Amino acid sequence: MTRDIRTVALCALTMAFAPPTPALAQNTDTAVAPPFDLVTIHPGEPSWIAGVRLRAAEARYRGTSWWGTYAQLRSQAEARLGNNDGALRFWDQADGGTWPAVFIPPRLRAVPALALLTSIADTARVIMINERHHAASDRLLTLKLLPVLWGKGFRYLALETLSNTDSGLARRGYALEQATGYYTDDPVFGEVVRQALRLGYRIVPYECEPSQEDSLDGLNPQQRRDSIEALNLYGRIFRADPHAKVLVHAGYSHVKKSVTKTWSPMAAYFRKLSSIDPVTVDQTSLSEHSAPEYERPVYREAIAVGLLRTVPIVLMDSAGRSYMPDFPGVDFEVLTPRTTYDHGRPDWMRLGGLRVPTDVPTPECVMRVCVAEARLATEPDSAVALDRAEASYVPRVRLFLPRGQQVRVRVADSAGTVIDTSRARAAR
């Protein structure tokens, strides 16, 4: 990995907002240890074990100044366990705001985000899309864009989370847990990597590396990170291929092109360095939360008037301009639909038809906490799982599996000890 877990966690929390979220400033409580050690994965442990440890420690952090940080770490850990509802709920406990009602201006229309970006791709050189790190659904638009953009001449996929040390990724064809990246340990992100490599994309890491963090450039750590990310993007792609077309998947505010007195995001640095104006897309603001009162007013109103239904959209006015009330500095704000659930699992795990819901028996889990993971039979246990879900105190669990392909389902207890390995074939 290019960054230790504490650094990754701090960066993820910091970039949720700009300036840094108050959760990081409220760490004055010395009566309880910081929660970062709970999310450190030790050799031999599964990547989801942090969620189990954080759950057990919840009472320790409630009421302390570490609660905001704990809740944000917990939200990401719940997502890794396949618990989308819990991920949203804990994020809102960390930073949930309440918003008044609002009325959308008249004559706005909903344009499907996939169709809009497809049309832009003919002339765009670089498209940058962001995500909330606790919401795996924010990776779906990038997944759907991969084959479309390939047909438009895009040949590079740059991932902020990617480690620069996984030299065998392209040859292997799939991500490894705790080796390829940090957020790539999520099944949806793992599928983004898998599908990109199948299509032929060159996957490019651009995260700031430890050797680059000590630069004597006078910048604060966050500024340095953004500037070096931009430098890595430019140096690793455009110096060798000046006419390259690139899809960039980043976190939160890195995709902003607006500059303030105290901060210049990665996209702004990249535009200045390369003279390429990237198309920048936000998914983090007008998105679902654990309850409507935490959602932005425009998002709630778009649902109420029927503009936002089943696919991600961009709101456009009568002059064809994108309506962007909540995330200045980008070209488009995407509204993503609320999740519907299938036997407790998010229905978007169908991945646009790549997966089929399959009920897998888990009789060994009727009396205990379990986690079930599915992998292709041709991939090792170290590969990022195709799907992962809790199977606690239930005789079966719903997993979303590739249609017609042979998979291996592994069931482990709450300590990560494997208690069953079986094979299952998804429905045709």
Describe this structure in words.
The protein has 428 residues and is of the alpha/beta class. The protein folds into 3 domains: 5-94, no CATH class; 109-335, Rossmann fold, CATH 3.40.50; 342-425, Immunoglobulin-like, CATH 2.60.40. The chain has helices spanning 5-14, 49-56, 58-61, 67-80, 84-95, 113-120, 140-151, 169-172, 187-199, 221-238, 266-274, 297-304; strands at 109-112, 126-131, 156-159, 202-205, 246-251, 279-282, 313-316, 332-335, 341-342, 345-346, 355-361, 370-376, 387-390, 396-402, 406-413, 418-425. The strands form 4 sheets. It has an 8-stranded mixed beta sheet, with helices on both faces. Strands 13-12-15-16 form a 4-stranded antiparallel beta sheet, with no helix packed on it. A two-stranded antiparallel sheet has the order 9-10. The longest helix has 18 residues, at 221-238. The two termini are 38 Å apart. Mean pLDDT is 91; it is low at 1-6 and 12-26.
Give the CATH level 1 class of the largest domain: Alpha Beta
Q: Order of SSEs, N→C?
A: HHHHHEHEHEHHEHEHEHEEEEEEEEEE
CATH A-level architecture of the largest domain:
3-Layer(aba) Sandwich
Counting DSSP H or I runs of 4 or more residues, the number of helices is: 12
Tally of distinct domains: 3
As a whole number of angstroms, the C-alpha radius of gyration is 21 Å
Estimated structural class: alpha/beta
Strand content: 15-25%
Which fold does the CATH topology of the largest domain refer to?
Answer: Rossmann fold
